[in-house]
């Protein structure tokens, strides 16, 4: 069959075939040089530049000035609209004709007022197909518009991809012409390329690789690039190879088109809208030609954007969703961060996402899809299951710096024992190219060989969008069942997970969080975004509760459902996995902060005020609204400069402000100089000794007769570290930063008294971090309060430094506890194994605790997420100073509060969880009439159960949803008491779907419920 002799030289034969398809070498005589036939310039090209992202109809009305290929346009983030008139030569009849467009800005072709094709050089999309086979009746003259964004696929980083954008970059059009495209050459090139890759990927040990080598060599022998009549024989030789089949046992790769589009990252939100348009219109073009093509697409927010910006495209998407090719996946509003959003925020990601998908496409997603997020909370399995989702796909743990995650297909068991079938595509990518390398990697890397015989391969350019190409589809089609390679089929996630589930008997289980051993700096970077997130979560919690109560206190009160949905969606958007982690450019930070401020200053604050005012009759007195389900006794200040008052506030309700005398007032004693510390504060519960630099020499728990600060150590010690990661600046803090610890020691203003006791004793001091940065702090001790607050202002102008605060405590325990979504978990305080020391910097929410039997210390905060507890030192991460991708990240003034709380017994019995809520959810002041009586709407009989959420049910007036969770990690029975007129109660899922089999009895005592550890229970209360 083959030409003789074939010399035994693998290298020359392989390189000969490579050169035959090279786009660099020998293009004068090789096959690659024949890809394009004749070309012809455009009739005319004109342009119009605008700083704004405008609609087609607005753009097409502008005046266009002549321009030419090679011209440059800018600056960065502007848009250049081109008007191209073209005339296809008569002589091209019967040929495939393309508009070839190469620009370094991403572009969209518009034809007849509709977007028709995305063009992105970096995404290998430079052709708009004008005709597949030019006929006489087709228009030969036409006008097209090309909308070119002055940014690349990855924005406009100056020098490196993640560097801050160059604001003055120019973008050029390097090619714009008509060409004849030789489809037969393209097909043959794909044959050659796949065979060459098989030779390379299978290596010298597999005889199948040699079969590919001799096949491709013979193809070069037979192929005359200048004579297309030689192609058929060459193509059929390749076909013989590709059609040699596998046996039955071969692994199956489920190929799914994908296009990961970061909702904002190295470009702003507004550009993402256009990225979706460009990427998805290209997908639709591919679907028209490839009926087997399946494309998976996440993030309801992006669909919502496309729906409002590109309604025609959205209709096409709906059509292909119905056909089962365009598959909405994930079920969430955006692909959010998996660590920092609160439990309720995570529920809302699914609630908003699933409801959107169901409304627009008539289906709920069955899989959670989060390929690119920086770690996954242990509470996610329960939340997924509660939202109708039992499958999960990601691949990010392949980025672990230290340990290799041991599974690709496994059951993931969450905090409460819920499990979800989980798949990490073994190719470790969500942007494969359909190449042999991708398939071989998928097969070889699979860590569940023999347990799972199916894997996913996601193909298509991603991160900045782009998506699949025709070439990727052609590659995959060639090797559907080729001996030596895994079988390949186009699949939906549902098909993949069904196969995995059917054959899951041997799968392993991973319990607890999926911790990413990288990107630990994202718990701290961009502190303002984190603070905005926490404050908005708190505000929305309070608005929903106040509005729900107002419905029953005031029958004219309209529940602000629409406005709340808008606010939630903005908050959820900012939880995207490059926004809340702080790994985005400055423009995105500005947008995110604008949303938070908009919510607070205009939207949210007004909604809360309206709802609170509806709870009481108007008047000249003052009441407090407590949104938490327990009674509180707290010091409040009615207005700036006024006297402080100790207020007793009833659980979820309103209480008039009446001064309650404290059992023990706070005393502040200034020491004479014989002692090493300057001040002693005491409130009957705690006693502190504070040094002149603000460090704590002592923190004494009076009831327990225990000192909290470790012998010879200081609490509230600020420390600075050098913080230079290996590459991912905003993302990563490396373990070696711990070796650069330096205490902040320079006192600018020593400790002095601010409030001299009574209801509050507080002192203040100022430290210098450097000649550019300072810390000013007020240490606050309130009457009856079991923790000390540290209200902090930092003027921060550092570069690649990390600021933390330490509390070395007198506690010995191998584990510390951290609050997460709807619960808590333990992580080690030692570094026994590589899995332990990889967690040198971890995340937590409102509190962390280090306890031994009968004594412990908790560290609470109002907007921080980064912690570390090593041995007996508890550390809270405060501020970082990375320079990429935002060169100004975290520069400026910061405000935050943390608190320290020693306790006897366990943290559960000591109400640490409640105290952390109290610190985060201030009592809200309301003007009311003097005869206002205290009133409570809800309370719960067990301290273990927290009533987290009260809201109006979606689309159901007169029905409230309440969500409770077990917070201690215990099995418990609790009764929810309410003074609202509840007629019926039903258990519902997190999407608020009533469970017809689970009515709940409402008695005069309330509603009694059984909880398992960390269980979330949602109820519909029908009034
Ligand atoms: Zn991403």
Automatic annotation (TrEMBL):
Gene Ontology terms describing biological process:
mannose metabolic process; oligosaccharide catabolic process
The record places domain Glycoside hydrolase family 38 central at 517-596
One Pfam annotation reads Glyco_hydro_38N
Instruction: State the source organism's domain of life.
Output: Eukaryota
Task: Kindly report the protein's main subcellular placement as a broad class.
Answer: cytoplasm
Q: Which Gene Ontology molecular function entries are recorded, alphabetically? A: alpha-mannosidase activity; carbohydrate binding; metal ion binding
Cofactors that this protein relies on: Co(2+)
Compartments (UniProt record) = Cytoplasm
User: Gene3D superfamilies annotated for this entry?
Assistant: 2.60.40.2220, Glycoside hydrolase 38, N terminal domain (3.20.110.10), Glycoside hydrolase family 38, central domain (1.20.1270.50), Golgi alpha-mannosidase II, domain 4 (2.70.98.30)
E.C. designation(s):
3.2.1.24
Q: Which SUPFAM superfamilies match?
A: Families 57/38 glycoside transferase middle domain, Galactose mutarotase-like, Glycoside hydrolase/deacetylase
InterPro entries given in the database record: Ams1-like_N, Gal_mutarotase_sf_dom, GH38_C, Glyco_hydro/deAcase_b/a-brl, Glyco_hydro_38_C, Glyco_hydro_38_cen, Glyco_hydro_38_cen_sf, Glyco_hydro_38_N
Task: State if DNA repair is listed as a keyword.
Answer: no
**What is the reaction catalyzed?**
Hydrolysis of terminal, non-reducing alpha-D-mannose residues in alpha-D-mannosides
**A GO CC term?**
cytoplasm
Keywords, in A-Z order? Cobalt, Cytoplasm, Glycosidase, Hydrolase, Metal-binding
- Family as reported in the entry's similarity comment: Belongs to the glycosyl hydrolase 38 family.
- Please report the name of this protein according to its UniProt entry: Alpha-mannosidase 2C1
Protein source organism: Oreochromis niloticus (Nile tilapia)
Gene transcribed to yield this protein: man2c1
